[in-house]
């Protein structure tokens, strides 16, 4: 399986990092070794002094597809959950300055935290509310209504370059409010008020 991530898909987040708002989806990937599931703790690596959390709505692909047309895209995912895209912001800034790829900043081990999933049919996918709670305080508060590129468009766009396969995950982008993690932090991801994800930093 592969993890496909979308960068800068909420205007307020692109602005908070002084990035331009993209005209087409900004895509990067993480390998399967980036996955961290079952509420296991995240051990802070020593190669970064500024790892950020980014809470995102995650789509789980349920059938193989290539060059999927947008009007058929919703048949290719059946479950929705939450994930944290851990980002070594200091390494990412160095990569950006040099014009290098982002992999060491974005695709390192356990950089893709994934919680529980719900059936897509139980949600109104155009307006999913989701929140990240850090040590008891809400630090990110998003709504998929604010996505620049919506789920069906993303699936169509991605599948023109990469064949989607059952089990692949799409991280659809983070809203504003990203910030630095610290050892001892406790994170909870809420989807329509229901806890779907939990992660402690060790
Ligand atoms: Zn992200």
Q: TL;DR?
A:
The protein has 202 residues and is α+β, with helices and mostly antiparallel strands. The protein contains 4 helices and 14 strands.
How would you characterize the overall build of this protein?
The chain is of the alpha+beta class. The chain has one domain (3-200): Fumarylacetoacetase-like, C-terminal domain (Fumarylacetoacetate hydrolase, domain 2). 14% of the residues lie in helices and 36% in strands. It is built from four helices and 14 strands. The protein has helices at 11-16, 89-98, 103-106, 151-159, and strands at 3-7, 26-30, 35-36, 51-53, 55-61, 77-85, 87-88, 112-119, 129-134, 137-143, 169-171, 179-180, 186-191, 194-200. The strands form three sheets. Strands 2-1-11-5-6-8-3 form a seven-stranded mixed beta sheet, covered by helices on one side. Strands 10-9-13-14 form a four-stranded antiparallel beta sheet, with no helix packed on it. The longest helix has 10 residues, at 89-98. The two termini are 27 Å apart. The model has no long low-confidence stretch (mean pLDDT 97). Zinc ion binds at residues 5, 7, 54, 56, 85, 171, 173-174.
Key phrases:
202 residues; alpha+beta; Fumarylacetoacetate hydrolase, domain 2; seven-stranded mixed sheet; 4 helices; 14 strands; 14% helix; binds zinc ion
Uncertain runs are none
- Mean of residue pLDDT? 97
Strand neighbour order, sheet with most strands = 2-1-11-5-6-8-3
Q: How many domains?
A: 1
Calculate the terminal CA-CA distance, rounded to whole Å.
Answer: 27 Å
The portion of residues forming beta strands comes to 35-45%
Radius of gyration (CA) equals 16 Å
Helix content class: 10-25%
What CATH architecture would you give?
Answer: Alpha-Beta Complex
Q: Give the H and E element order.
A: EHEEEEEEHHEEEHEEEE
The ligands found in this model are: zinc ion
The CATH class designation is: Alpha Beta
Biggest sheet descriptor? 7 strands, mixed
CATH superfamily: Fumarylacetoacetase-like, C-terminal domain
């Amino acid at each position: 399986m592969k993890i496909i991530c979308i960068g800068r898909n909420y205007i307020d987040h692109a602005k908070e990092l002084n990035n331009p708002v993209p005209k087409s989806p900004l895509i990067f990937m993480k390998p399967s070794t980036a996955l961290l599931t079952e509420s296991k703790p995240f051990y802070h690596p020593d190669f970064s002094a500024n790892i950020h959390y980014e809470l995102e709505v995650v789509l789980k692909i349920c059938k193989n597809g290539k060059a999927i047309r947008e009007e058929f895209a919703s048949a290719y995912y059946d479950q929705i959950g939450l994930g944290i895209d851990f980002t070594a912001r200091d390494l990412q800034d160095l990569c950006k300055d040099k014009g290098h790829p982002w992999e060491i900043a974005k695709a390192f081990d356990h950089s893709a935290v994934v919680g529980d999933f719900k059936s897509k049919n139980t949600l109104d996918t155009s307006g999913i509310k989701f929140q990240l709670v850090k040590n008891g305080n809400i630090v990110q508060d998003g709504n998929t209504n604010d996505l620049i590129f919506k789920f069906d468009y993303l699936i169509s766009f991605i599948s023109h370059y990469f064949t989607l396969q059952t089990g692949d995950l799409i991280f659809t982008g983070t809203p504003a409010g990203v910030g630095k993690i610290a050892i001892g932090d406790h994170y909870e991801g809420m989807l329509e008020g229901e806890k779907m994800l939990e992660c402690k930093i060790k």
